[in-house]
Amino acid sequence: MASLLVRKPKGKYVSKRTSTKFENLLFWSRWLLSPLYLGLVLVLILVIIRFGQHFVTLVENMIAGHDESFVTDLLALLDLVLLSNLILIIVFAGYENFVSRIDAAHQSVDRPHWMGTIDFSGLKIKLIGSLVAISVIELLKDFIHLGEDPAAKVGDGVVWRVVIHLTFVVSGVLFAVMDVVGDRHKSEATDLKKDGSLRKSAAAKH
Predict the structure, then answer these.
(1) How many CA atoms lie within 13 A of 92 on its CB side?
(2) Separation between Cα atoms, residue 157 and residue 161, nearest integer Å
(3) Distance (Å, whole) CA 96 – CA 27
(4) What number of CA atoms fall less than 13 Å from residue 204's CA on the CB side?
(5) Of 77, 172, 58, which is closest to residue 122 (Cα–Cα)?
(6) Rounded Cα distance, 126 and 89, in Å
(7) Which of 4, 97, 124, 131 has a CA positioned 20 to 30 A from the CA of residue 169?
(8) Contact between 76 and 10 (Cβ < 8 Å)
(9) Is this model's pTM higher than 0.70 or not?
(10) Residue 116 falls in which region: left (phi positive, over 0), alpha (psi -120 to 50) or beta
(11) DSSP assignment, residue 206?
(12) How many angstroms separate the CA atoms of 51 and 47, rounded?
């Protein structure tokens, strides 16, 4: 009987120590996402190179007098800029939400105002908004091409891009509605907690 009483606390101690090590391992596993965000930063370099190529093409077309392609080339540049903004939003917001706080940014005067304020829900809205904007630019390029060529017809590619664009729009609306409903439930739960605490304090006084 005495030996059982001695072993029981020891077993609890070993179990607690194992659980702590396992939880520390799980908590450390968030750093496995760091190479992914670093890879997105390297992708920005490729986007910059692509932007330079499109910019050179735009200048060459202007010098050659191909004014009809100016809008299309400009839309291609805007498309890359929006894509770069999307990558930065995912890198900053994703890293701070899932890996660690960026102390260097919080101590900098150049820190973007939205850093530290976008949670996972806000990140989804930003992502969908950026995808909708990029999709609009792709559709504009298709419509401009159709307007420039009278013989051109609406192909399956354009139809599918319209369908994808509408899917992004509907998804964004649904995400926004779900966020509004979720925030409303949170505020109602907070109000109920406040009412309960006020009633308890009032009952304690009486």
Answers:
(1) 21
(2) 6
(3) 14
(4) 6
(5) 172
(6) 8
(7) 97
(8) no
(9) no
(10) left
(11) -
(12) 6
Q: Which two tokens stand for residue 166?
A: 């509408």
Q: Which amino acid is at 117?
A: T
**Please, what's the largest Cα pairwise distance for the chain?**
98
How long a stretch of residues is the chain? 206
* CA atoms of 75 and 149, how far apart (whole Å): 18
pLDDT tens string for the chain (206 positions)?
A: 444 444 545 555 667 788 888 888 998 999 999 999 999 999 999 999 999 999 999 999 888 877 777 888 888 899 899 889 889 888 988 888 888 888 877 777 787 777 767 777 777 787 888 888 888 888 888 787 776 666 667 777 778 888 888 888 888 888 888 877 776 766 655 655 666 555 555 566 55
104 within 8 A of 71, measured Cβ to Cβ:
no
Q: Which of 25, 37, 32, 23 minimizes the C-alpha distance to 102?
A: 37
Query: Look-up: residue for tokens 């891009």?
Result: 161
